[in-house]
From TrEMBL:
<dbReference type="InterPro" id="IPR015943">
    <property type="entry name" value="WD40/YVTN_repeat-like_dom_sf"/>
</dbReference>
<dbReference type="InterPro" id="IPR036322">
    <property type="entry name" value="WD40_repeat_dom_sf"/>
</dbReference>
<dbReference type="Pfam" id="PF21031">
    <property type="entry name" value="WDR54"/>
</dbReference>
<dbReference type="GO" id="GO:0036064">
    <property type="term" value="C:ciliary basal body"/>
</dbReference>
<dbReference type="InterPro" id="IPR001680">
    <property type="entry name" value="WD40_rpt"/>
</dbReference>
<feature type="repeat" description="WD">
    <location>
        <begin position="250"/>
        <end position="291"/>
    </location>
</feature>
<dbReference type="InterPro" id="IPR049546">
    <property type="entry name" value="WDR54_beta_prop"/>
</dbReference>
<keyword id="KW-0677">Repeat</keyword>
<dbReference type="GO" id="GO:0060271">
    <property type="term" value="P:cilium assembly"/>
</dbReference>
<protein>
    <submittedName>
        <fullName>WD repeat domain 54</fullName>
    </submittedName>
</protein>
<dbReference type="InterPro" id="IPR050505">
    <property type="entry name" value="WDR55/POC1"/>
</dbReference>
<keyword id="KW-0853">WD repeat</keyword>
<dbReference type="GO" id="GO:0005814">
    <property type="term" value="C:centriole"/>
</dbReference>
<feature type="domain" description="WD repeat-containing protein 54 beta-propeller">
    <location>
        <begin position="1"/>
        <end position="334"/>
    </location>
</feature>
Amino acid sequence: MYHKEKSIQIKNSASALYNNLGVLRIAPRRLTYFTVVHANVVNMVSASWDGLNYSHRQLQSKEPNVATSTSLIMQAAFCALPSRDLLVVTSQKGIQMYESDGSIMVYWHALDTPETPTAQAVFARGISAVWENYICVGVSSGAIFVFDIPSKGSNITLSEVLEEHKESITDMASECSGSQECIADLVSADDGGNLCVWKSGEEFQLLNKIPGFDMSCSSVKLWKGTVVAGYGTGQIRLYEAVTGILHAEVNAHARWIYSLDIAPFSGLLLSAAEDSLVRVWHLTLTPETNSVEVAHLHNECVTDTQICGAKFCDGDGYAFAVTGYDLSEIIRYTQS
């Protein structure tokens, strides 16, 4: 179903972080941007669709009053809003927002770091664009920062802090189907596997809490009112977002899941884990019977590689890309 394409080389290898791959498709320019985090650097590659042109850029983690920061970056993710695309980078010191090509930093938000080191690490992780003008970012305290993003310029404001989670945020996702009927439009996950389902707006409303079972939820997606969550057990669970009803549980991988992605137009689900496998599933929702079916379509083994990032390169799931710990390349697969 899929075959391997030519890999894209990156300047540094990928760190072993959840969801360590960002992909942004720039259709008018026939380009795709990729980001991969290595320690305190974000490797960025702009690749032309014909595979002939590649340009590289590296973004350093920032902190006030320091020329070169050594603070580790936890995640880099593209946030596509109707009016603009931004690249959001989270680290142990704060949250950086860049224009999507990485050329200009438009906003910096420092995290409150204690004067004396504590047992609790401080970092930001979990990034999602929500609705028309919000970007939500999770932090290690369990709080979620909601930023209001203007259609242009750098007048970004922190509009709300959501304090529902008690453990570090691992990942966040907004409703990706584009459907207006869905009540829930954001799901957040934490290190204890707990999920919170939100409705965005001037004030975000908590719609539902789905309890975890003391196993970290490393990656989460929201599609047509269904939460898809991947866990350290290698399992994928599908819940109805608003009620928390468990629709399906899949023993998808033998090891810790690091990344999930959904192609919103086709209902394809991508899962990648420490067991060297990337699997493609197909989700079918039947509203009449309120049921969800999961079918396994394809798997690829990236030999001797702990996979840490996997993303579809388009809304149909025609192609996907994969990164692995200590691998200095982005591996791509396309449908045959």
